[in-house]
Amino acid sequence: MSNYLGRWRQQIPILAGNRKQRARLTFAEGDFAAVYAMSDVHGCYDELVDVHRRIEEDAARIQGPKLIVMLGDYVDRGPDSSAVLEFLSKNPPPGFQRLVLCGNHDAELVKLYRKPAGILEWLGFAGTETLHSYGIDIEHLLQSAAGTETIARVIRNMIPERHIQFLESLPIMLRMGRVVFVHAGVRPGIDLKKQKDSDLMWIRQPFLDEGPQLPVLVIHGHTPGRAPTFGPQRIGIDTAVSATGRLTVLTIKGTRVGLL
């Protein structure tokens, strides 16, 4: 995460039981000449690379620092989760900083890797494609009656530890003036400092209908649609790329919000 460490201001992690909350970050409103946000890549590596190319073309005439914000869910559903994580763990394009936030699918992959006893539940959730992208034939393992310990050993041998550490390091929220970037949304009416990680990664209702009920605009993913959705003080940009082929990019240039 060294590509943005020099500029962001981090709130101190809060203990939740025995677990630390993921970091919540803050930038000043005028820190960047242009901001590009996208969400829910879901293993679609080709679309991710193409979007970065289009972002670079769009930003070529913009003077000043530029930021790419990723809103989570890099794994599952699509064909190449491993390549997506490898791409995002490397440096951003020249002239850009890139901030990668955590989504619920990313957190679930970490949980599986660290505690593989829940492998069957995770496969029912969405994980088969992710394992395939690492060369793991999970169907064969299950048909051969491989035990949890054997499956865990295969997963740990095939998925690089550095990919898991990358996901474990991801913050969960970015605030930039009155704009908040997060994977799923926020619990309406609750101060941002008191939001739970689980809400920020998983919430749908009542956030989708009620909005944040705070003096902010929330940019989020998590809830897919065929086009971006505009609700009360929120913009949803998950356009289900693994099904539609469309990876939506929201842009902020000065006071103007648009779509690339």
Automatic annotation (TrEMBL):
A molecular-function term among this protein's GO annotations = protein serine/threonine phosphatase activity
Q: What span is annotated as the signal peptide, if there is one? A: none
Q: Does this UniProt record's set of keywords contain Transcription regulation?
A: no
**What keywords appear on the UniProt entry?**
Hydrolase
Which EC class, in a word?
hydrolase
Q: Read off the InterPro entries from this record.
A: Ap4A_hydrolase, Calcineurin-like_PHP, Metallo-depent_PP-like
Gene3D superfamilies (UniProt xref):
3.60.21.10
Q: Where is the Calcineurin-like phosphoesterase domain?
A: 35-232
Question: Is Hydrolase among this UniProt entry's keywords?
Answer: yes
Stated name of the protein: Probable serine/threonine specific protein phosphatase protein
